[in-house]
# Entry
Amino acid sequence: MPNTNDSLLLMQGICKNFPGVQALLDVDFSLRRGEIHALMGENGAGKSTLIKVLTGVERQNSGKILLDGKEILAKSPLHAQELGISTVFQEINLCPNLSVAENILIGREPKKFGSINWTQLKHQARQILDRLDIDIDVTQSLGMYPVALQQMVAIARALEISSKILILDEPTSSLDARETEKLFDVMRKLKGEGLGIIFITHFLDQVYQISDRMTVLRNGRLVGTYDTAELPRMDLVSKMIGRSLDELEDMTRFKHETGKRIAQEPLLEAHQLGRTGSIQPFDLELHAGEVLGFAGLLGAGRTETANLLFGVDSPDHGTMTFDGQEVKKFSPLNSIHRGMAYCPEDRKADGIVGDLTVRENIVLALQASQGWFKFLSPKKQTEIADKYIKLLNIATPNADQLVKNLSGGNQQKVILARWLATNPQTLILDEPTRGIDVGAKTEIQKLVLELAEEGKACIFISSELEEVLRTSHRVMVLRDREVVAELAGGELEEKKIMQIIAGS
Amino acid sequence: MKPTTSLLKDLRHHSLFWPVVALLLIMLFNLLFTPGFFRLEIKDGHLFGSLVDILNRGAPLMLLAIGMTMVIATAGVDLSVGAIIAIAGAAAAVLINPALGRELVTSDKLIEDVTQTPLWLVILIPLIAATVCGLWNGILVSRANIQPMVATLVLMVAGRGIAQLITNGQIITIYYSPYFYIGGGYLFGLPFSLYIVAAVFLFAWYISRKTSVGLFVESVGTNASSSFYSGINEKNVKLLAYIFCGFCAGIAGLLISSNVKSADANNAGLWSELDAILAVVIGGTLMSGGRFSLVGSILGALIIQSMTTTIYAFGVPPEVVLVVKALVVLAVVLLYSELVKVSMDKLFEQKGVQP
Amino acid sequence: MKLSKVLLFIVALTTILSVIGCGAAAPAAPAEAPKEEAKAEAQPASSDKKTYEDLVVGYAQIGAESEWRTANTASIKEEAEKLGVELKFSDAQQKQENQIKAIRSFIAQQVDVIGVSPVVETGWETVFQEAKDAGIPVILVDRRAAVPEDLYATYLGSDFVEEGRRAGEAMDKVLEGKGKIVELVGTVGSAPANDRAKGFREYIADKPDMEIIASQSGDFTRAKGKEVMEAFLKSYGKDINALYAHNDDMAIGAIQAIEEYGLKPGEDIKIVSVDAVRGAFEAMIAGKLNCTVECNPLLGPQFYELALKVVNGEEVAKWVPSEEGVYYPEEAEALLPERKY
# Structure
């Protein structure tokens, strides 16, 4: 039993039903003053629902919530904020075209005679940012600042002077290591002020880096609350996915095995390929049966390189040969005809077609490669879709579900299915595991290795160095839009790559 | 839950539910208040009555709605269809009798029942002109990356000017009777224009459901970037949509000029782009693009036309016609809003839950 | 049929109101000027009086907006050539600023008189005042401007109410005082539509056997005219004795609708319309139109006559209605070749 005396927040026996779904069943949760508490679980485990109940987006069917020992019932997120519970949701709902100050104080602007008191507005915004140790010009429009700073602004906006609890839902999913560190500084500072912070993330590294305790949920039920220091990483993962897991070990072994079957002749070759303002000329070789990793910070040029290889952008420098033939026409369609596939980095903007069904999303690239008139009949489409739904274990009621209704991990699998349906020779996967849960992550990593085993060539791009290392036979390191190193075999060490990335 | 409730709910959530309801309501209104609205008789060997009028008058709008559906589905809009109607009509009229366009002359020769150009050219050239107009729009939107509303605004304004250049600012009366058959003739007792609409509709339906065009259009309309990454040439998809829309407007222009036996560069198809957009929206295709329904757009066009015909038949004073129209449109569009949907669901669920 | 009663009531009410309104306005309307005399007077001009030959006129036209306007421009230009008047003509392309520029340049060139068809009603005080200060009289043609009366010499233009009255008179004649009439109104709210409806109702107010049973806007276009007439025919069928259309184009559209319905336009349904464009004459020759009331764009002769009078300091009325005829089929064949628009 957690000691109720030092508990800032206590949630007891929370149940929440949605039609046909038991989203939360008898879940307890406690948060202490001056604590960073990670809320862990796979997608659909009930993390979001628990947060929604706490912040008044949803009402629990039973159970009670105590804040500072008094029972509360938040009617809306605004009400919750008044009660002292501030939330930064996963998607940053800020207005990039408004100034930083306006973004922070939108909806509660200081007024004078009914009109906004701009001097006061700037002053207040600066005060709030000072508290977070952030020094930026509050009159500049928000869009001018990097995503990390925007994230800080979102936190600043959520924070009230009277805030007792801060909830951060996936705050680091679009930040790179440096930016994440900056965010952690802010979190530690707020923790020092006695705030209780609930931290939701998929990055296990980060959980171990910053959290004091963690609560694990699975299928709407509480698995347990643990001190971070006392729960080994492997145990955490098993608790989250509910089965013991030696998969990581398996994978390393698997990788070594597949590494033996890499073809000698390169399938794809780039000579001094480059594009002004996008990526410096680079050389690249990719062999059948190989997984080539791209490592580097966000904005180092990983995506730009992938875009060139797939023909999203045309190079203005160098040459590329595919299967011995020089590539003349650069476009996605031409690349598909060459047997290439590309899961783009931004799943929402460049990957899924939200209003279309899972089936249509899966057949899209195949249909595009077949042209306007070789139409896949609905029957054939369903066949293909069903095959990949089964193969990739996509959680959807049926193939005619709109893809936007699926969870992030399943959307990613749909995009993978789209490309596998074209039976590609070469796959470029840019951040295929971003923002998806651990279970799905390992599935995708394993899939990449399986594809390599089948003799396909893969390029694997990720911000998580650990997973790049786990899946790749060879790693190219990028920094400041330039390929700075290529490592293989025994050189594949996290520390070494970190040093290259840092430029030291 | 009772099965009837869920059946009703499925029905209510079908995309064509509200357009059908709206059309039925207008018809019900006429059944009650407009005597003789449903009377059909045979005159001169063809069907005759208000219902036939709605179909016949609505033919150009239905054609526009079919073309506009494709454009709106690609997340675009074509404001120039009214102007294209004027261009097509003007071109046809001038081809039939070029002298009228050039000067103010009075001559008995001009009102002879002859044409200066063979009929097939009279039909073909305006259609080509209209298609070229669509191509122009398509290039501006897909290649020059101009916002669809702005890009087509160019032709919306310039198109009437072009039509006036063609006709020399005159209303040209057409005296060549074979041409009248297109918009005023009857085949097997029904207006010939309906067969044209049916042909265009079937063509559009076929290419959008039996080829990959439909999938590509919906994909590009929902997320052009994702479509591009998936190998769809999203520029060409948009281009084709605008070309098709221009072509449809060209046919509509021929129908209108043939039906009123004249070409009026100023007024032919005036504001019809707005009616077409409205028809598409009433039919359930979102302005933001993506999913489209050709049947819905046809229903939308019929709703607008039957509303107009009803207003005339019922004798609403001209001063309030626009207000009445606006109210009906408001009512129809409100039916689509989340607010109404949610409250309807609640209403029906409450009734369904009762023992 | 309650609605038709309500409609009738509204129609009656508007008729009464318009009669009252017009009663008050009537004295303001000028008597027809005896033009023939004026012409005779103008020709043998004395030495200090200007003649057509040494008259310099600046004319600020709106632009080429319609068929009617094209004919209007042609008339102004042709007549100037015929009379030997020196005409400085400006086409403003439907923009007031262009018209104002043109007038200023006319003032700078010291023309004798300025003619203008104001594209909009307001915003003319300053430039008209400049003309007045320079001693150059301004004649408004076809359209009015909202300026004090002392800023312009005279207004030459149609009297839409009178056109409506004449149409009523013609309708009386073709219907022999008895019948049910449907009306195709012009664009709702436009001056010609309002006044042509008003004049017509004024005339038939004391004809108890002439009744307007339906009235709907056809927007001055053939397509709409046809569509609305179709609906009228569906609703009233053979009850309709006559059609009053606010312009010829709507009448031409309606004629097609009537023919398609299986009735004979001009016989089963008598038709009176306004404008007297070419198409109307052709329809009359074919026996499908019974009468058209002229709205004359050929204002050239009248304009120069007025201009000369004004320059020579003769008295002119503040409003000179344009000369407009009423044409019946009997004259149509003879007149058609002369029609310029």
User: Anything to note?
Assistant: Residues 45-158+297-323 of chain C form a domain with the Rossmann fold fold (CATH 3.40.50.2300). The longest helix of chain C spans residues 2-25.
